[in-house]
Write a structure and sequence with these properties.
The complex is a heterodimer. By secondary structure, chain A is an alpha+beta fold. Helix content of chain A is 45%, strand content 19%. Chain A has a three-stranded antiparallel sheet with strand order 1-2-3, covered by helices on one side. In chain A, a hairpin with a 4-residue loop joins strand 1 (28-34) and strand 2. By secondary structure, chain B is α/β, with parallel strands linked by helices. In chain B, the strands form five sheets. Chain B has a seven-stranded mixed sheet with strand order 4-10-9-8-7-5-6, sandwiched between helices. In chain B, helix 3 (63-82) crosses helix 10 (284-300), helix 4 packs parallel to helix 5 (131-140) and helix 11 (302-321) runs parallel beside helix 14. Chain B is globular and about 70 Å long. In chain B, helix 5 links the parallel strand 5 and strand 6 (143-147). The chains are: A alpha+beta, B alpha/beta. The interface between A and B is medium-sized, with 20 and 19 residues.
Chain lengths: 142, 413
Amino acid sequence: MSDDIYREIILDHYRNPRNKGKLTNPDVSIHDSNPLCGDEIDIHLKIEEDKIKEIRFEGRGCAISQASVSMLTEMVINKPLNLVKDLAKEDILENIGLTNLGPARIKCALLSLKVLKMAMIKYYTDRDPESARKFENEPAVY
Amino acid sequence: MQKSVLNAYDIRRDFPILKRKVGDKTLVYLDNAATTQKPSSVITAIHDYYSYYNANIHRTVHQLGEEATIAYEQTREKVAKFINARSKEEIIFTRNATEAINLVSYTWGRQHVKAGDSVIISEMEHHSNIVPWQILEMEKNANLRYVGVDDQGYLRLDDYKNFLDAANVRLISISEMSNVLGTILPLNEIIRLAHRKGIPVLVDAAQSVPHMPVDVQRSDCDFLAFSAHKMLGPTGVGILYVKRDILEGMPPFITGGDMIKEVHRHATIYNDLPYRFEGGTPNIAGVIGFGAALDYLNRIGMDRVRDHEVDITKYALAALTDFKNVKLYGPQDAIDRGGVISFNIADIHPHDLATIMNERGIAIRSGHHCAQVLMERLDVSATSRASFYIYNTKEEVDIFIDALDDARRIFRV
């Protein structure tokens, strides 16, 4: 029953998003949207010693996309980049507790991960194009 | 004598898909502005073509080809009658309304729109009536102008009149009914004002021809585009009507087979109207199926289709107006609009609402409805949209309203 999707925790993150806003002087900022839904997410990162020191997001869209990115920010803050780099879509879906989404709505849930990975690729490319290569064979998030 | 009303329950029996379940719920299909369901007669017509007389058309001597050509061309005649065109030569089959509009922008548009010229559209256009003109604007260094929409969802006619007064307006391209707001535009006045200045008008009729009587001679529009699949027909068939004297001056669009009379090494003589504009083997089965769809609608009568939709839209609007935390978009009077209702409820995102509806077997649309310029104007990222057709009942509206109540409960708004 999809009504189960809209559990307390999803609604809570939708209405009271964590780490929402901008960062002054972020090391990387990136934007993407989901053409199906029009969900939009911007992610801003501050990176120190190869760790995500600060993360903020801006966005608008459905409860699933916005709760997913809010929960993802909590998941990755203070985590080393090489751990974040290996996050898989299953990790995200488990984190938000939605493992039974259909093909349309799963894109809402995974936009957060897609944008975070884009942010990291941009971060590496800006600094060291060589090291960005390790993302080249990354499977598409969806 | 009182006009008879259509019986949606009788009509439903002709649509096999309406019997299906979504999970354990009976399908409630309220996404008709996107595409409509198909009656058995349309499905049978397509089946019969492939089963009994499948052949390519026009240059065929054998029996099957002759039968297929006759059936294909009969639909052209039916279309001409349906919109009251003067002749069937004014009817061109395309893939959809989008391609029909592109045909005009790529042929007539490139011929007539020059640097500094303007094309006028409105803020409530579907992307299919925006992007082709944007491309022309960039290519020709022309100006695309948007007639505004007021807060009630009506076209700002004053804007329009001001634009017309500016020099070098080459074309008006405007939808007859908004696919988001449902607003029915004052087409006769729009065309009259344009023609007074000698400016031709293209009508995007994708949402109007399926839902109300349309008469191209009465409105005197110059171009009219619509899609078969939004009016019981198959996907992959669009219709472009062009006034004959304009059509005769238009260069071809898709070139190749069937649109030619003679091809020599370095020169080609194009075929007569309307075949000049139908390059390559067309969607023969689809066109034949569309003929059956037109027969079906003719049996009901477009006046009765319109009356039914006004009735059901009034009923739904009344229920929604009383609904807590609902924001309705578009004219509040059902007479001024088609059977399309866009709305939002509190902070429930339309995609979440559509998911909750789907769980109850209800198909609605959610998103920007290919009208992002209008979404910006309304200052929303998305809306939910319920849209009706001949087989929808008030009972289904009740199920829909109950489901909205559930959604409100789940989201606690």
